[in-house]
Amino acid sequence: MNNIYVTMAVLKAKEGKREKLLEELLKLIDPTRSEDGCLEYILFENKTENNTFYMREAFKDLNAFKMHGATTHFKNFAVQIDELMSEPIQLIELAQVSH
């Protein structure tokens, strides 16, 4: 059984905060990819719904994902959520069903 923990985080910017949210999300990429348990961390933007970003995340297991939430770089981002985002992060847990 595969214990890889995969999620899609949905992040919606407040009106007028798209650029700042994007800037802060991009700051997460390199330090997160350097974490021992990180397998994938890729940012997408919805082409038809302005101000909406998706972060596809894969960690070796749930514990590695939880460790990510405790890092300084993620905590620095998290304190800005109320200012930058129109709603809380929506975290969709994914299970791979094909190869």
Provide a compact summary of the structure.
With 99 residues, this protein is α+β, with helices and mostly antiparallel strands. Helix content is 35%, strand content 29%. It is built from four helices and four strands.
Give the strand order of the largest sheet, numbering strands 1, 2, ... along the chain. 2-3-1-4
Number of helices: 4
CATH architecture title: 2-Layer Sandwich
The quaternary structure here is single chain
Report the strand count: 4
Q: What is the helix content?
A: 25-40%
- Could you tell me the strand content as a percent range? 25-35%
The arrangement of helices and strands along the chain is: EHEEHHHE
3D shape? globular
Kindly provide the name of the CATH class.
Alpha Beta
Provide the number of structural domains.
1
Query: What summary fits the major beta sheet?
Result: 4 strands, antiparallel
Query: What is the CATH topology descriptor?
Result: Alpha-Beta Plaits
Q: For the residues shown, what is the average pLDDT?
A: 96
Indicate the radius of gyration in whole angstroms: 14 Å
